[in-house]
């Protein structure tokens, strides 16, 4: 299939799909890894790597423990930014927008697709809170396995997902002598709004 000229693309989602698929073929590890930025109650920014676990016209999905720093900041502000960088392809994508919670059905489906040890870990880990020693975490993990087994492990009530509803998506392609190509798609309000496109100086 012929690759599209990204500067000529009229909407961002098909271009995102193409670039993500290119990264899947080229990146050695975690092609869906993204830096997720949130802000705490004081307005101080925070960033960490997460894995993109779903995307469609509604937005971009990640999952977390609501009691973690990430979860608390996301719930507090209900807005976030996400950045992908694929070094082997010399590309990056930046996404910004408000957050919404995924449905219970979506959260259950993804949780149940995880490895049993990861599901048990969602119960065992008091994510982002102090841990005296690793042995304590290992012991709690064993407690959860004794309690739930390794088959029908329920999703914790404090564990679910967020969807970034993008209001802007910027595509960046490395250029010779730092004359990069930058295209940003923007829209107002709801996910039904029409995208506008603007080229930016590098």
Structure commentary:
The model has no long low-confidence stretch (mean pLDDT 94). This protein has helices spanning 12-26, 69-77, 104-113, 116-124, 134-148; strands at residues 33-39, 45-51, 54-56, 59-65, 79-86, 91-101, 159-164, 168-173, 181-186, 196-200. The chain has one domain (9-200): Electron Transport, Fmn-binding Protein, Chain A (Pnp Oxidase, Chain A, Roll), CATH 2.30.110. Strands 1, 2, 3, 4, 5, 6, 7, 8, 9 and 10 form a ten-stranded antiparallel beta sheet that branches. It is elongated, with a radius of gyration of 19 Å. The longest helix is centred in the N-terminal third of the chain and has 15 residues, at 12-26. It has 202 residues and is of the alpha+beta class. α4 (116-124) crosses α5 (134-148). It contains five helices and ten strands; from the N terminus they run αββββαββαααββββ.
